[in-house]
Amino acid sequence: MELVLALGVGVVAACGVYLLLRARTFSVVLGLSLISYATNLFLFGVGRITVGAPPIYDASAGAVAYADPIPQALVLTAIVIGFAMTAFVVVLALVAHQRLGGDRVDQPLPEDEA
Amino acid sequence: MALLLTITLPLLLCWVPLLGSRLAGRHASAWLAGLVALGSIVSLVVAASGQAGDAVQLVHVPWMPHLGLHLNMRLDGLSLMFCALVLGIGELVIVYARYYLADDDHRDRFFAFLLLFMGAMLGVVTAENLLSLVVFWELTSVSSFLLVAFKNDKAAARRGARRALGVTGLGGLCLLGGVLLLGDIVGSYELSDALASHDRIVADPRYPYALVLVLLGVFTKSAQVPFHFWLPGAMSAPTPASAYLHSATMVKAGVFLLVRLWPALAGTEQWFLMVTGLGLATLLFGSVVALFEDDIKGLLAYSTISHLGLITTLFGLNTTAGVVAGIFHIMNHATFKASLFMAAGIIDHETGTRDLRALGGLARHMKSTALLATVASAAMAGIPLLNGFLSKEMFFKEAVDVGAGMSQPWLVPTIATIAGAFSVGYSVRFVWDVFFRPATGKLPHDPHPPPSWMQAPVALLVVLCVVVGVAPALVVQPVLEHVSLSVLGTQTPAVDLHLWHGLNLPFIMSLVAVGAGVGLYLRRDLLTKLRQRLPALPSGPRVYESILAGMFRASRFVTESLHRDSLPGYVVAVLASGLVLGLVPFLQAPSLSVSRVTSVPPAPLIGFVLLLVLGALATVRLHHHRLLALLALSLSGLGTALVFVELSAPDLALTQLSVEVATTVLMLLALFFLPSRSPKGEQPSGRHIRDAGLAIAVGLGVAALLYAVLTRPFSTIADYYIATSKSHGGGTNIVNVILVDFRGFDTLGEITVLGVAAIAVSAMLRELSIPRPEVAEDGRRWSLDRHPFLLRVMSRPLLPLLLLVAIYILLRGHNLPGGGFIAGLVTGVALILQFMAGGLSFATARLRFDLVATAAIGLAIALATGLASMLFGQPFLASAFTHVHLGPIEFELASAMAFDLGVFITVVSVLLIILVRLGRVGVDASSPSPDPSPDPSPDPSPDPSPDPRPDPSPDPSPDPSPDPGGPC
């Protein structure tokens, strides 16, 4: 189970990095989203993985090995903030496209714009 | 306590003069500053009167105890003397400045800076903790910068202030290093401990380094050669500030530290060589240059440098008598130099010039000023019956005594006598050229006597010079004994101040110096010629500026060689170095063996991870076709949510799913305005291979690291949360209780970040409006049916249902998966659906909220919940809960739920702000826009890469723009 998750996260991270290195803003945004998935899953994995024991306290159940709630709380806010970050980057890309007349990220600005 | 007040009064009340001119007229700021200083003086008197004999009064104020940093203060003879100088001369300078400064000089600001500086200086001289001494030391550098740069409309003032700050700031850094070393050697940062550990400090191998660093701090502050050049530049300060900084305070901080640390650091060969060596060089250099200065203040500045050299020399001699003489000269120099600077200010004020070549014959116009300046100059020259004579005599005696123990017994006394002669020479020049020689020409103003109150401080100081000079045993001997005792303790020599010690060698040296000095003044034309023959030395400012320019060049070179104007370039650099840095500990790890048993994956997990992975791979494969890539990306997001479901994280799954919807809507909106394709073949060939290699390496690293983490045994602090979630937080959904209760402060920060992001997005889009394209890039028309009938019909009844679900999720969140974040996302998505189905104007007409205000309300609710607990004496965000019985219904009500409500409102508003604002960007190209955005499209630039699309795609874009002809 651990190996499957680790490999899956690794592939997603690799895909994210590859897209991050492309020349257009939209690809960079896609890459950042993939890297967000990988990072969130990674952070989540720090609490180790458990099947079938969500951290919902049940007094009648006695001692249960609940899934670690701390990484879950961290990741939950990370997902929401990730949305805000994506929105920011997307809008930045949009404004840059309008103002600078292009969406390349691997070239110096044209002289008159710099 | 009174001591604490002495220092804090000027520091904390330094803003008071700023009120002055606004409240009570032109001179109120001076009076207020004077009052604050007076309060400080009174509390110093109170503090000192409660102190017996040679006792040391310590005040302990912890600041950062774990760093050894305290605001501890110390009042002993030495600090008392310096406090008296700082406050006494400070008060006189305030009185003087009241008459000196013109109306348009922003005097309220001047007095505020002066008080700030005064407080910093008091902090330095009373510091018991070495670290706090450094803090105040830096504060003197900063506040003196403000004073020197006071006439900030003049380039010379700005330049002078920058230099002064640069040099003394660098010295301050060195001093910090020295103090840290010293504290490490002693094992404590308390001055008392350092003073008691002389033998240990001197024997330590780190002693030379500590010494050099501390001395660099001292020498830069006290303007010793070769760091002296900032001081003449600092003469661009208003004259009252110069009188203060360069007589009793700023430059004296350096020599203060010398004598303060004398018991801890002195007594070694290194000390003698460095301190006396540089001191003698400074003494000679300053006195020679002063003779040739044509600006009165310049002359006084170099004279100050020379006298500081004298004091430094005395402390460097490693004799107790030298220390006594040095302390005595500090007092004497402060009195006569302050009065001379003030006199120079009067001359400048009344004649409009400070140029010695232009001035002359002023004695006829301002008799009393002439008298006072003459007496003070005589004290500076070391003429008998004045205070300067006594300490100079002591200096000559020490020079002879120390010389006797050296291989060239004549060396030190000769240098001392030559410097003495030059100082007589420049003193004579100052007095004669300004007051007594016939006037040479027309002055800018007709000279007339100054206001008598402007002259009063000068008179008081000159009287002191005379009284000390005539009756030293009576007036100053007990003070000097007291101060020396506090420095030297049991080693204090007998202090014996007399006017007449018989016709001994020092007196002969004095006679020679006076005779030669007058001769030097009369024939200084010869010296000028000699000086012109000599090769010019590199001037301090020029060296300093060229070093500075070199540093700027170097940093520009580094920046330009790193700046590559390419995002992939930076990303590659960051990732590659991250890989290397990560690899090193990985290879050094003792074993990578699996220590936790891994388990067989359940079948659903394999499927979900596969969905995640395939989605990611498809995104890469399709990324040139942006719409398809986006769809593939959302598959991956769905996979992530499902993995969360399988791995016992229902809250995360719900969040991920709703965020996924919002993100997709967002990106679709953005795609409407962006090119629909990323062209292929834009990057150099081979770039794909490199990037793929790097990506695979990173992926492998991530996978290996995650596998290593997952298979390691661990202990978690979560047990506490699990055990107390119900009993303390009143909820059973532990994740939610952590978010809104245990770590509520974090959550408050996070929703603030959301608000900031929304405002940033809103600001970026404010000016932007883009005409909606009529046709797609491949020439096909966009669908005319902007709001499909089916969607419009279906979405209306869906809204109440969705809202009901959201409220349910919000309410149950404390106990079951759900909560403010998820409910907020669901609500946001439900409302966005209305925008998509009905159009912007339809939805805005029905949703009459100022969204930014709503977001602020949400934040305010969360904050208020936190603050409310403080009303009940609980810490910020502590929660309370209770069981409520309403007839047959029993439920728990936790204050954290109010917090969650705040989270909910914030999330909804942020989501709507971002998406609605983005939707408003589009305007109709043809018709005038009914859009409320204020800015009609300002010359929109056309898309630069109109590449034809081979395969058509259906209209993907929800169009939330106003629909003039819609049925709504």
Report what the structure shows.
The complex is a heterodimer of chains A (114) and B (968). Chain A is built from 3 helices and no strands. Chain A is mostly helical. In chain A, helix 1 (2-20) runs antiparallel to helix 2 (25-46) and helix 2 packs antiparallel against helix 3. The longest helix of chain A has 32 residues, at 69-100. The mean pLDDT of chain A is 87. Chain B is mainly alpha-helical. In chain B, 68% of the residues lie in helices and 3% in strands. Chain B contains 39 helices and 8 strands. In chain B, the strands form 4 sheets. In chain B, strands 1-4 form a two-stranded antiparallel sheet. In chain B, strands 2-3 form a two-stranded antiparallel sheet. A two-stranded parallel ribbon of chain B has the order 5-8. In chain B, a hairpin with a 4-residue loop joins strand 2 and strand 3. At the A-B interface, helix 1, helix 2 and helix 3 of A face helix 27, helix 28, helix 29, helix 30 and helix 31 of B.
How would you summarize the topology of this molecule?
The complex is a heterodimer of chains A (about 110) and B (about 950).
Chain A: H1 2-20, H2 25-46, H3 69-100
Chain B: H1 2-12, H2 16-24, H3 28-49, E1 57-59, E2 62-64, E3 69-70, E4 73-75, H4 77-100, H5 107-126, H6 130-148, H7 155-186, H8 191-195, H9 198-203, H10 207-221, H11 230-233, H12 239-245, H13 250-260, H14 262-265, H15 269-292, H16 296-316, H17 320-351, H18 367-381, H19 387-404, H20 411-436, H21 452-470, H22 472-475, H23 477-488, H24 505-522, H25 524-533, H26 540-562, H27 567-588, H28 603-621, H29 626-646, H30 650-673, H31 687-710, H32 718-729, H33 734-742, H34 744-766, E5 770-772, H35 789-812, H36 820-838, H37 840-846, H38 851-871, E6 881-886, E7 889-894, H39 895-919, E8 922-924
Parallel strand pairs in B: 5-8
Antiparallel strand pairs in B: 1-4, 2-3, 6-7
